[in-house]
Amino acid sequence: MCLHLDPWWGSVCVCVCVCVCVCVKPLRSVAALSLSLSRSMDFLKLCTFETFQQLWSHYGYGGNFRDVIEQEFTRIKGITYLDHAAATLYPESLVRDYCQDMSRNVYGNPHSHSPSSRLTHDTVERVRYRVLQHFNTTPEEYSVIFTSGCTAALKLVAESFPWRPPTESEAGSHFCYLTDSHTSVVGMRGLTCSRGVAAVPVSPQELDNRTEDEAQGEDVICQTPHLFCYPAQSNFSGKKYPLSHVKGIQARRLYPACAHKGRWFVLLDAAALVSCSSLNLQTCPADFIPISFYKMFGFPTGLGALLVRNDAAGILKKTYFGGGTAAAYLSGEDYYVQAANISDRFEDGTVSFLDIIGVNHGFDALYRITGNMHNIQQHTFGLARYTYMLLSSLCHGNGRPVAQMYTEGQFESPVTQGAILNFNLTDSKGQIIGYAQVDRMASLYNIHVRTGCFCNTGACQSFLGITNEQMRRNLQAGHVCGDSLDLVDGQPTGSVRVSFGYMSTFEDCQKFLSFVVECFVEKPVTVDQVRLQKLKTATAASRGSDNHPSPKMTNGGICKVDEETATEASLKGFAHRDSNSHGEAYTLTNIYIYPIKSCGAYEVHDWPVGPLGLLYDRGWMVVNGNGVCLSQKREPRLCLIRPQVHLPSDKLLLRASGMDTISVPLQSKTQLHTSSQVCQSRVCGDRSPHDESQVKKSYSSTDSWIRCRTK
Ligand SMILES: *Cc1c(COP(=O)(O)O)cnc(C)c1O
């Protein structure tokens, strides 16, 4: 995070601890922290590699894992990257080999017939083959259609599936999807609904409970095509849904297929699963499987694929046709004959051939470093399970749990659970701590996690217990997907997700857990030993059994305080969240305004109100050389700048230790009277025009103060 900072910042580096206290008020002094930590022997002992190894024996990939990480991922030194479900990291050898390949070979357009074109064509075909091989299938069974990503692959299916609208004599097609699906799956509804086709959300419970014993078989009379979509792994909770559902739906044994006659096709969204697990298409013959390659290799981005079962490909109807997809067509007449080859037929225009060649290097590096996907699954599951065990057993000084975990099982087995942890932290009174606060603190510690609803509203609603009505109310309260309005009326609008990749290390878990303890646990740290013991045995007990327990919150209750540490006086005043539920009157004594977005607060006891709210509150922002607004997410130390609005002199004064005070005029004469050039920046998703004549060069050649005219 401090990598490309100006020397100006150098002098204030040491003050980061100050900023912690300023930004997140509930924090106590560092001295108190280390004192209570050192006494919490239980937790410290749990947080060692020795303990980890006792809990899980698969770590690394043979050889010296640490050396490999140091060589291949030098750039993440000092960073705790725990957002692999969003994008994993590429190893250095991948990009090095790729660059070498690119600089040594001449790759032409694969649709020409020159030697350079043939080289491209052959390399692309080789990659297709490797993709199929990776998923244990062959070109006889499946075809690879390259797309720009998983989402584009889903859209392709939505656009070309032969949806049949209902008629007077026939019920028509059904588009069914598991509610724990990614937005990009649910969004297929936009297409089906406009064609009059019924969209049927199916909850995981419905799928489990409504089954038929006898396979219904294909109906020879009714050939109405239906589509069922479900994620092989939830991108929210990491839950792995049984791959046996594929055959169950195809044979009309499972709901919703057993309830509707016709021919059932299954789309298995494997985007989240395949980053850390293998997928065997021999045993799980899904009809359509969309994936994105950056989730497997970290590079290339903008490339995905739709794997199509050749038997099912024939039903897909082409509407738009682009270059390379026709066997023949006439320009002057509506005559188009599609290409016989399935990949050719659906790859409109020229595929991103250089990126596809990158996939080759992706496979090379992945197998070279890890051996195979099974090793990756074991390694990442172990890390996730360990983190889950500790986080869900961790308690405040008063014995209340620190985290509310959003998981269905208890990380019993890598067969049912991926390397994803989803949770909200709670304070010692049991109140949820908003995810945005956790995210901001994590950024200060250079810990990279994902927060919000993860493009999976269905799972978010189900785990957090948010009704449709509440979702609408949250929007009215100003909450939109991806923002930092983390609590509405004390109820969470999202959560925190920690996800692992094949290059994640034990140190990542350790750093993350220490961070939670330091920032969010009321001391003394205690551990729910009973729960921990139960989790330890859960894995052993579940081996060989197939049941999936379904309680949602697995650690909702108050846990037992460890006798040894409970005597220590607990520190009070952390994260007070008094609610005025008893109707008592409160007096407002002071207000903090934030004149500059992401900088420190300015405390006032009375303050004028302007036409757009509190005067000068969030009136400015800091932008970089490209006009992009800097935020605390990217530059945590912005909060060291203490702005002060001096009304008598009409000046905004900026102070930070180690620099001279900067004075910016509050009002500019030119701003009101000249038609100055306006540039655009995005602040929290909103376009904000700002006035370049107001640029005030202040502390570096690339960053500038700009008067923001959003308000
Ligand atoms: C990431 C993801 C997607 C969307 O992938 P894009 O690469 O954003 O197109 C869809 N489904 C799941 C389960 C995912 O994890």
From TrEMBL:
Species of origin: Parambassis ranga
Cofactor(s) recorded in Swiss-Prot or TrEMBL: pyridoxal 5'-phosphate
GO biological process: Mo-molybdopterin cofactor biosynthetic process
Keyword entries, A-Z: Molybdenum cofactor biosynthesis, Pyridoxal phosphate, Transferase
Physiological role: Sulfurates the molybdenum cofactor. Sulfation of molybdenum is essential for xanthine dehydrogenase (XDH) and aldehyde oxidase (ADO) enzymes in which molybdenum cofactor is liganded by 1 oxygen and 1 sulfur atom in active form.
The organism's taxonomic lineage, starting at the top: Eukaryota, Metazoa, Chordata, Craniata, Vertebrata
Name of the protein in question: Molybdenum cofactor sulfurase
Residue numbers of N6-(pyridoxal phosphate)lysine PTMs: K295
SUPFAM superfamilies given in the database record: MOSC N-terminal domain-like, PLP-dependent transferases
